[in-house]
Amino acid sequence: MSDNSQDSKQSTTPRPYGGEFYTEVTDSQGHVITLTYNDLWMHIVCLQSLDGDWQRARQAAGMVPDAARKRAIIDRLWRLEQVLNGLPAIPEGLMQLNLHRAHVWFNTRQVSDRQNTLYQE
Fold first, then answer.
1. First and final CA of the chain: distance in angstroms?
2. pTM of the predicted model as reported, rounded to 2 decimal places
């Protein structure tokens, strides 16, 4: 029995810290823009809890830990959404995997630029 639980623990993907690479997008001028898991989580929170309303997200960020850095992410994503004519769609599986994590991060955690070197998507 302990062998199975040991295998289970070893095969579990570690949680990202937030600074890990999520995806890249290219703007109309050919500039590559990197999005991190911090960006992904904020996008998920805004879509799922705030109907995609960045102004409401900005107000909500004022009531959670690390408000200034979360507002900076919101402002960046809002600007990117305008420049790119929309942010990249989040695949359903990735949305489901990160839905709870995104809300925990938004409501209780600090923004982190750290990268979990064991984390690989």
1. 29
2. 0.87
Dist CA 95 CA 45 (whole Å): 10
Read off the DSSP letter of residue 86.
S
Note the pLDDT tens digit of each residue in 90-105.
999 999 999 999 999 9
- Taking the C-alpha atoms of residue 73 and residue 76, their distance in angstroms, rounded to an integer, is 5
Are the CB atoms for 58 and 75 separated by under 8 Å? yes
Q: How far apart are CA 83 and CA 105, in angstroms?
A: 26
User: Above pLDDT 70, what percent of the chain?
Assistant: 87
pLDDT at 6: 46
Whether the predicted pLDDT of 12 surpasses 70: no
Q: Which residues pair with 1 in a beta bridge?
A: none
Bridge-based pairing state of the strands 21-26 and 32-36: antiparallel
CA torsion, ordered 36, 85, 98, 55, to nearest 10 deg: 100
CA angle 48, 27, 70 (to 5 degrees): 40
